Amino acid sequence: MKEILWHGRGGQGAFTASILLGTAYTIESNDHYALAFPSFGPERRGAPIRAFNRISEGAVGDRSEIKKADYLLYLDDSLLGDSPWDELKENGVAIINTVKNIENNRRNIVTFDASGLAAGILGISIANTAVLGFWAGFSGEVSLDALIQGIRTGLNPKLHEGNIRVVEEAYARGRAHV
Question: What is the distance between the alpha carbons of residues 163 and 38, in angstroms, rounded to a whole number?
Fold first, then answer.
């Protein structure tokens, strides 16, 4: 089982991206199971939120919050705390949407300008599908075809074309980073 922890702010689409990831993973194979769930209360737009995925080739029964993840996915670099790596498993990887140079002594930090990619294609810097596409390309856990099918299944049709273009480009960049 792989565990993915999303960090974002209300309105950035972290929970939507986690749903798309779960949908794409289960589309890929009848033997794939996924769970996607958020952790937020009555916060307003802009408040920090977390979303979670568990993906597995067997049934997923654990519905508790993820304390240590295989992947940390940051939609907003302002959410990096003093010790964000406390949430990362020993061999885990953090993918951070940022243009900043983040010291990477542990070699498990990957930075990517997801906001810039999204802004260039969509005209707005909502980076959720860019981070999702980059993660999928980098990790190899979900194919590009499954992501596209997940977008067609999980998003409003008027959002398909742009988000598919974002995912395609981000996926290619993730593959190139491996």
Answer: 21
Which runs of E-coded beta strand occur in 10-132?
33-39, 48-56, 69-74, 88-97, 109-112
> The tokens of 145 are what?
């075809």
Contact 74, 40 (CB under 8 A): no
* C-alpha–C-alpha distance, residues 50 and 38, integer Å: 6
The total number of residues written for the chain in this structure: 178
Q: What's the rounded Cα separation, in Å, for the pair 68 and 41?
A: 21
Cβ atoms 48, 12 nearer than 8 A: no
Contact status, residue 53 vs residue 67, Cβ threshold 8 Å: no
pLDDT tens sequence for the chain (178 residues): 999 999 999 999 999 999 999 999 999 999 999 999 888 766 678 889 999 999 999 888 877 789 999 999 999 999 987 777 789 999 999 999 999 988 766 668 999 999 999 999 999 999 999 999 999 999 999 999 999 999 999 999 999 999 999 999 999 999 999 7
φ/ψ of residue 27, rounded to 5: -65, -35
| Element housing 5 (H / E) | strand 2-9
Contacts of 175 (CB under 8 A, 6+ apart): 137, 138
Our separate counts of H helices and E strands in the chain read 5, 6
